[in-house]
Write a structure and sequence with these properties.
single chain, 241 residues, mainly beta, hypothetical protein yedk fold, 7-stranded mixed β-sheet, 5-stranded antiparallel β-sheet, 3 helices, 12 strands, 8% helix
């Protein structure tokens, strides 16, 4: 499962890290709490060139009647992505990389959040993307097209299994060309959809502030020791905004 992540790098950093040829002109602000349905970056292949672009997190299949299901289709299990109707077309032809600083998972009855990140910093997560257009939209209007993506997950690796039983699929630099190339046979991709090996991911507890989607600053990824105390029983309060 991956339900929130951090993506704070600027366009230049991502251009260098992912050997991008075409840069997205729409720059996003650093986001330390990316949530489903929000805009975020992906790297895909366009005319054999790597392109950095902005999409929304939460896949809307091209055949969908409406976009209301996007918030549910944020993750695709690598074990079934080639078979599920919502994902299989995108997996076969529209694969991408999702740049992340790291991601969050929640553990235990107290929902203690953890932050998980590559030992070398930014990671490239396997993703799939789609284009969706409302049935009544003008076919010549490019602004009517909604670009969305989902993240592929796999079983937890040895570095992360103490936090959660699933993790995003991490794509190494040596495997990125094969992953992005739409001509790569899907059967050849199965060996990429594996847990990260030992020694590649760091984990630490972080503040419960990240549980609130409006929280968004660099302190969200700071380690806490000891963990935050268990939350007090909730008491209904009047809405102030």
């Amino acid at each position: 499962m991956c339900g929130r992540y951090a993506a704070s790098r600027d366009l230049r950093e991502m251009q260098l890290a992912f050997a991008v040829d075409e840069l997205e002109p729409h720059a996003l602000a650093p986001n330390y709490n990316v949530a489903p349905t929000q805009e975020t970056y992906i790297v895909d292949l366009h005319d054999e060139h790597r392109r950095l672009r902005v999409v929304r997190w939460g896949l809307v299949p091209s055949w969908s009647r409406d976009a209301s299901g996007a918030a549910r289709l944020i993750n695709a299990r690598s074990e079934t992505v080639a078979e599920k109707p919502s994902f299989k077309a995108a997996f076969a032809r529209r694969r991408c990389l999702v740049p992340m600083d790291g991601w969050y998972e929640w553990q235990g009855a107290g929902k203690q959040p953890w932050y998980l990140s590559g030992v070398d910093g930014m990671v490239a997560v396997a993703g799939i993307h789609e284009r969706w257009r409302p049935a009544n939209a003008d076919p010549s209007d490019p602004t009517a097209v909604l670009h969305t993506m989902a993240i592929l997950t796999t079983a937890a690796g040895p570095d992360t299994e103490h936090v959660h039983d699933r993790m995003p699929v991490l794509i190494t630099p040596d495997d990125r060309d094969a992953w992005l190339d739409p001509t790569t046979d899907v059967a050849e991709l199965q060996h990429l959809l594996r847990p990260a090996p030992a020694g590649t991911v760091r984990t630490w507890r972080v503040s419960r502030a990240v549980s609130h989607v409006r929280s968004n600053d660099p302190s969200l990824i700071d380690p806490i020791d000891p963990p935050d105390p268990e939350p007090a029983p909730s008491v209904e309060q009047p809405t102030l905004w």
